[in-house]
Write a structure and sequence with these properties.
Helix content of chain A: 25-40%
Number of helices of chain B: 11
Strand content of chain B: 15-25%
Number of domains of chain B: 3
Helix content of chain B: 25-40%
Order of helices and strands of chain B: EHEHEEEHHHHHHEEEEEEEEEHHH
CATH class of the largest domain in chain B: Alpha Beta
Shape of chain B: globular
Strand content of chain A: 15-25%
Number of strands of chain A: 5
Largest sheet of chain B: 5 strands, antiparallel
Largest interface: A-B, 35 and 32 residues
CATH superfamily of the largest domain in chain A: Beta-grasp domain
CATH architecture of the largest domain in chain B: 2-Layer Sandwich
Oligomer: heterodimer
CATH topology of the largest domain in chain A: Ubiquitin-like (UB roll)
CATH architecture of the largest domain in chain A: Roll
Chain lengths: ~160, ~290
């Protein structure tokens, strides 16, 4: 049995457009890699088992639960988090719509919803309400009852 | 979580060598949606995780003239976004597109669904109905196991320590065939099947008679069940409400569910009868379409 800690993995990854070179413990999740090694704490920890979607980030353009990805797995890949949504020109249209529609209360689920919704609108600019609800089924919110979130995503869609 | 090493080999041989070295203290990593949950909960104490996503054979998805080959690491979305698969294997799409939510489907795949061996695995019944075969590599070479014989109990499979599921091979559907899968859940999505039914039917040229059928059941036994009697009862019979209802009753009899938080024995048996009836009809419709 291995008693010493397994050696760290050298990872090169592009996060929100910026290249990072990291030494990641092999068993560290992408969620912890983002939060603890890079200091990007916008991505939230919720259930840690893939039910709640609070930790949703985009890897190579596909949304994933970052608690169920290992840091070493994003070597050579592109990661996008909630921190990458706003620009110096202002909030992303989804963020603005969430504010205007009061689509958040406690806010823990919000980064996950924003990244997930962006993943939808980037590929389907005008989804139906049903499509939005289906797409966001992997994101849980215990405050809003979802209607305001869906309305915000509809508002941000073209 | 027990600290494990991460290796990402590029060949089946290298992966098998690492798995063989560590025995049951190493596991292959495809989507990680079951593995990392189990490792975190200390269900599995691992020394090594073998990421299979750099191995071309495990990431291959191919619709050929002899059938469909699904690499064990191919995520769900690649299966259900593939037009050729959707066209020829709609029953497999039915199951693949309802495993978890969008985030899970970016990572989880049919290979992992099969290896996780949950009786409720939504990806498995359609594979069984289609007579799919699991191709397994090990230190002593490659072997093939019918998917209905792959799971041996909840979370248990025929895979021995040191072995690796490489691909799932699905035969080319016969002419005049159709397949379908559905499950019952009390929610719209993101739930575990209370009961599920996958069906594959072959009709004769007239479309009025069954030539053969295979029916597989989820969540009503310790493993996904191939309901042989139910499927065989349709062979040579006319396509009508009576023959379909009789097969659905036989499927109900093949179910041996338990009562738990998701449903009772009686509810699950009832669901199997209703869903089997519906899925035979849907498979027939697709066979005619």
């Amino acid at each position: 049995m291995t008693t010493s800690s397994p050696s760290k993995v050298h990872v090169t990854t592009t996060i929100n457009g910026q290249e990072h070179e990291l030494l990641v413990p092999p068993y560290m999740s992408l969620l912890d890699t983002l939060r603890e090694l890079i200091g990007l704490t916008g991505t939230k920890e919720g259930c840690l088992d893939g039910n709640c979607g609070a930790c949703t980030v985009s890897v190579n353009g596909r949304i994933v639960d970052s608690c169920l990805v290992l840091g070493p797995e994003v070597d050579g890949k592109t990661v996008d988090t909630v921190e990458g949504m706003a620009t110096t020109d202002g909030l992303h249209p989804l963020q603005q719509a969430f504010l205007e529609e009061a689509a958040l209360q406690c806010g823990i689920c919000t980064p996950g919803f924003l990244v997930a919704a962006k993943g939808l609108l980037d590929n389907e600019p005008s989804p139906s309400e049903g499509r939005i609800r289906h797409w966001l089924a992997g994101n849980l919110c215990r405050c809003t009852g979802y209607d305001k979130i869906v309305r915000a995503v509809q508002k941000a869609s073209s | 979580m027990h600290p494990f090493a991460y290796v990402a080999p590029s060949t089946v041989e290298e992966a098998v060598a690492v798995l063989d070295e560590h025995g049951d203290r190493a596991r292959p990593l495809a989507g990680g949606t079951d593995l990392l949950v189990k490792a975190r909960a200390n269900v599995w104490e691992l020394d090594a995780v073998v990421d299979v996503k750099n191995i071309p054979e495990l990431m291959n998805l191919e619709v050929g003239k002899n059938g469909l080959s699904i690499g064990a690491g191919v995520p769900c979305y690649q299966v259900y976004e593939n037009d050729q698969v959707a066209d020829e294997y709609p029953g497999i799409i039915d199951g693949t597109s309802i495993i978890g939510g969008i985030q899970i489907q970016s990572r989880a795949g049919l290979g992992g669904n099969l290896c996780n061996a949950a009786p409720s695995g939504d990806g498995i019944p359609a594979l069984i109905a289609h007579s799919a075969v699991a191709r397994i590599a090990g230190p002593n070479g490659t072997r093939e196991v019918a998917v209905e014989e792959f799971c041996t109990g909840p979370s248990r499979t025929v895979i021995e320590p040191g072995e690796l599921l490489v691909s799932i091979e699905v035969p080319k559907p016969a002419a005049n065939s159709g397949a379908a899968y559905t499950r019952f859940i009390p929610r719209n999505e993101m739930d575990i099947a209370v009961a599920g039914v996958g069906v594959y039917v072959v009709l004769d040229n007239s479309g009025n008679n069954f030539e053969s059928a295979r029916i597989a059941l989820a969540s009503v036994g310790p493993i996904p069940i191939l309901a042989n009697e139910a499927g065989d009862s349709l062979s040579g019979k006319p396509v009508n409400d009576e023959t379909i209802a009789a097969a659905a009753k036989l499927a109900r009899n093949a179910a041996s569910p338990i009562t738990d938080m998701r449903g009772t024995i009686e509810q699950r048996k009832h669901l199997i009868e209703v869903l089997t009836d519906r899925m035979i009809k849907q498979a027939v419709e697709r066979a005619k379409g």
